[in-house]
Write a structure and sequence with these properties.
The complex is a heterodimer of chains A (258) and B (288). With 258 residues, chain A is of the alpha/beta class. Chain A is built from nine helices and ten strands. Chain A has a single domain, classed as P-loop containing nucleotide triphosphate hydrolases (Rossmann fold), CATH 3.40.50. In chain A, the strands form two sheets. In chain A, strands 6-7-8-3-9-10 form a six-stranded mixed β-sheet, with helices on both faces. A four-stranded antiparallel β-sheet of chain A has the order 2-1-4-5, covered by helices on one side. In chain A, α3 packs across α4, α4 (116-126) packs across α5 (143-156) and α5 (143-156) packs parallel to α6. The model of chain A has no long low-confidence stretch (mean pLDDT 84). Chain B has a single domain (23-52, 67-287), classed as MetI-like (MetI-like fold, Orthogonal Bundle), CATH 1.10.3720. Chain B has helices spanning 19-24, 27-49, 81-117, 119-134, 137-148, 152-162, 164-179, 182-189, 194-231, 242-249, 258-287. The radius of gyration of chain B is 24 Å and the shape is elongated. Mean pLDDT of chain B is 84; it is low at 1-16. The chains are: A alpha/beta (258), B mainly alpha (288).
Chain lengths: 258, 288
C-alpha cells in the first residue's frame, strides 16, 4: 500500500519536560490508526503537532511524498484537518453554520460563489444534518450535531488526513455511537486516512485498523487491531485492555447467546 | 443510519428573534438609550427650541432666577443658561465621540495583535501599555493640554496618545483566552491567515467587551473634557462648554447656585446614561 503519514524522530519539549520522545509512526493510506494511552501520555500533543498547531523541536513529518515544512503553507495545512474533543468550543459561536462551512471553501477557491450553497448542503448531508441548519448558530445544536458540523467543515477542504482527537468523549453515550458510526461510514465512502485518538478501548476497536499505544510521551506498541485486542505485545497494552470495565456476567445476556 | 434533522431545535433562529424585542426587555439598556436620545435630540433641535443665542449677552437681564422666559435663569452676562447648557452638550459630546473613535479602533486592533500573536509583539505592546498605566492619566492630559495650547486639539492629541491603552488591555486579555479555544485552532488547520482569523473570528467575540468598555471610557473622557474646561485649558470661551460654565458660575455660588449646579448635573446625567447603556449591553451580550 502507498504511504500516507510518515513520522520520524518527532520530539517536543515543554520547559524541560519531554512531551513527545522520538516518535516513529506510519499510517498507510486509507487506513485508520487508533491511538490510545492514558491522559498526559502525549496523544493530543502528537495530534496537534501533526495538524501543524505545535511546531516540533525535532523530527520529520511527511504526508505522501512531501515532507511538511516547519512553517506550513496554506496548501499543506489544508491537507490535514482535525476534529476536536469539545464540540462546544470547536465552532465559533458568532458565525452561522453557513459562514462556518463556506469560509474555507471560498478562501481556498474550492468552489465558486454560485456553487457555494449546493456544496454546503452536500457537506451537511454527508454528516446527516438537515439543510435548514445553514442559517442557524452553533448554540442551537446539541453536542452531537455540533460535532457533525465540525466534521463537515473539516471535510470541506478535502483533506488527505483526518485527525480526530477524542471526538466522542465529550458526548452522551447514546450520541457517541451515532457519531462513531458516522466516522466509520465516512471512512468507507471517502477512503479517508485517519488518526483517531481515544482512551476508550471500545471506540478504538470499532474504528481502527492499526492500534498504537502511547505512554509518557513514547510510543510503546504498534500492532494490527486483531493482534492487539487478542494478544498485545507489551505488558502495558495488556494492562490497558484489562482495565476496560465489563458488565457483570448475566446482566444483559440473552437466552440465544452463549 | 437515520438522518438527524433540525426540527427538534428549540426556538426560532437568533436573527429572526429581533434585536428590538431584546432591547425592550432590558430596562437598563432601554433607560440609558432613552436618556441619551433625549440629550442628543435636544442638542440637535436646540436652535428650534430656544429663541436665544448661546453667546448673546444681555446685561439688563443678568443673574435671573429660573422663570418661564428663562427656564434655568441667566448667567452673569445675561445669557440664557438652558440654551448654553444644551449648546455645551453639542460641543462636549461631539468632542467626546470624535476623540474616542480612533483610540477605540487602534486599541482593539493592537490588543488583538498582542493577544493572538503573543511573543515579541505582545511584549512590546504590553510594555507600552503598562508604562502608560503607571502614569496618572490627568498628569498626561494636563501636560499635553499645556504643550499644545488650550482648545480641542489638546484633548484629541492626548487621547490619540493614551486613549487606546484601555481598549488594548481589555482586548488583549479576551483574545488570549479566546486563543485557547478550539475554534481558533480549527480555523488555523483550515489554513486561514492570521489576519483573517483575527478579524473574522476573534473580532466578533471581543467587540461586545470592547464596546462595554467604550461606554465607561466615554464617561471618563467627558469628565476629562469638563475638567480641562474648568481649569481653563480646555475649550476656549465663548464656545459653550460645561467645564467653563461650572468655573464661571463659581463666583456666584451663594446667590445663583444653579449656574454651576446645572452644568454639573448635565455631566452626571450623561455619565449615568452612558453607564446604563454600557451595563445594559453587557447584560444583553452575556445572556446570548
Amino acid at each position: 500500500m502507498s504511504q500516507g503519514l510518515h513520522i520520524q524522530d518527532l520530539t517536543v519539549r515543554y520547559d524541560g519536560v519531554t512531551a513527545l520522545d522520538r516518535i516513529q509512526l506510519n499510517i498507510e493510506e486509507h487506513t485508520t490508526l487508533g491511538l490510545v494511552g492514558e491522559s498526559g501520555s502525549g496523544k493530543s500533543t502528537l495530534a496537534r503537532v501533526v495538524a501543524g498547531l505545535i511546531v516540533p523541536d525535532e523530527g520529520i513529518i511527511s504526508l505522501g511524498e512531501e515532507p511538511l515544512t516547519k512553517k506550513r503553507s496554506r496548501a499543506q495545512r489544508k491537507k490535514i484537518q482535525m476534529i476536536f474533543q469539545n464540540p462546544d468550543a470547536s465552532l465559533n459561536p458568532r458565525l452561522s453554520i453557513r459562514q462556518l462551512l463556506s469560509e474555507a471553501l471560498l478562501f481556498h477557491g474550492i468552489v465558486r460563489r454560485s456553487g457555494l450553497e449546493q456544496r454546503c448542503l452536500e457537506l451537511l448531508a454527508r454528516v446527516q444534518i438537515d439543510g435548514s441548519a445553514l442559517d442557524r448558530y452553533p448554540h442551537e445544536f446539541s453536542g452531537g450535531q455540533r460535532q457533525r458540523i465540525a466534521i463537515a467543515r473539516a471535510l470541506s477542504v478535502e483533506p488527505e488526513l483526518l485527525i480526530a482527537d477524542e471526538p466522542t468523549s465529550a458526548l452522551d453515550v447514546s450520541v457517541q455511537l451515532s457519531v462513531l458510526e458516522l466516522f466509520a461510514s465516512l471512512k468507507q465512502e471517502l477512503n479517508l486516512t485517519m488518526l483517531f485518538i481515544s482512551h476508550d478501548m471500545g471506540v478504538i476497536h470499532a474504528i481502527s485498523d492499526t492500534v498504537a499505544v502511547m505512554r509518557h510521551g513514547q510510543l510503546v506498541e504498534i500492532n494490527s487491531k486483531e493482534r492487539f485486542f487478542a494478544r498485545p505485545d507489551t505488558a502495558y497494552g495488556y494492562q490497558l485492555l484489562s482495565a476496560v470495565p465489563k458488565m457483570p456476567a448475566g446482566t444483559y445476556s440473552r437466552r440465544d447467546t452463549p | 443510519m437515520k438522518t438527524i434533522s433540525a426540527h427538534n431545535l428549540t426556538g426560532p433562529s437568533r436573527k429572526s428573534q429581533g434585536t428590538l424585542r431584546r432591547i425592550l426587555k432590558n430596562p437598563t439598556l432601554l433607560g440609558g438609550i432613552i436618556m441619551l436620545a433625549i440629550l442628543v435630540l435636544l442638542a440637535i433641535l436646540i436652535p428650534v427650541i430656544s429663541p436665544y443665542d448661546p453667546s448673546a449677552q444681555d446685561l439688563r437681564a443678568f443673574l435671573q432666577p429660573p422663570s418661564a422666559e428663562h427656564w434655568l435663569g441667566t448667567d452673569q452676562l445675561g445669557r440664557d443658561l438652558f440654551t448654553r447648557l444644551i449648546y455645551a452638550a453639542r460641543t462636549d459630546l461631539t468632542i467626546m465621540v470624535l476623540a474616542e473613535i480612533i483610540p477605540f479602533c487602534t486599541g482593539v486592533f493592537l490588543g488583538m495583535l498582542a493577544g493572538y500573536y503573543g511573543k515579541w509583539i505582545d511584549n512590546i505592546i504590553s510594555l507600552v501599555t503598562d508604562t502608560f498605566v503607571a502614569f496618572p492619566f490627568y498628569l498626561i492630559v494636563i501636560i499635553v493640554a499645556f504643550a499644545s495650547g488650550a482648545g480641542q486639539r489638546g484633548i484629541f492629541i492626548t487621547f490619540m496618545l493614551v486613549g487606546w491603552i484601555v481598549f488594548a488591555r481589555v482586548t488583549r486579555g479576551v483574545t488570549v483566552s479566546l486563543r485557547q479555544q478550539e475554534w481558533v485552532a480549527s480555523a488555523q488547520t483550515l489554513g486561514l491567515s492570521g489576519i483573517r482569523i483575527m478579524f473574522r473570528h476573534i473580532l466578533p467575540n471581543v467587540l461586545p467587551q470592547a464596546v462595554v468598555v467604550l461606554m465607561t471610557d466615554m464617561v471618563g473622557l467627558l469628565v476629562a473634557i469638563v475638567t480641562l474646561g474648568y481649569l481653563g485649558i480646555g475649550i476656549a470661551p465663548p464656545t459653550p462648554d460645561w467645564g467653563t460654565m461650572i468655573s464661571d458660575g463659581q463666583s456666584f455660588i451663594t446667590t445663583a447656585w444653579w449656574l454651576s449646579a446645572m452644568p454639573g448635573l448635565a455631566v452626571v446625567y450623561t455619565g449615568i446614561a452612558l453607564s446604563l447603556v454600557g451595563d445594559g449591553l453587557a447584560d444583553l451580550w452575556r445572556r446570548r
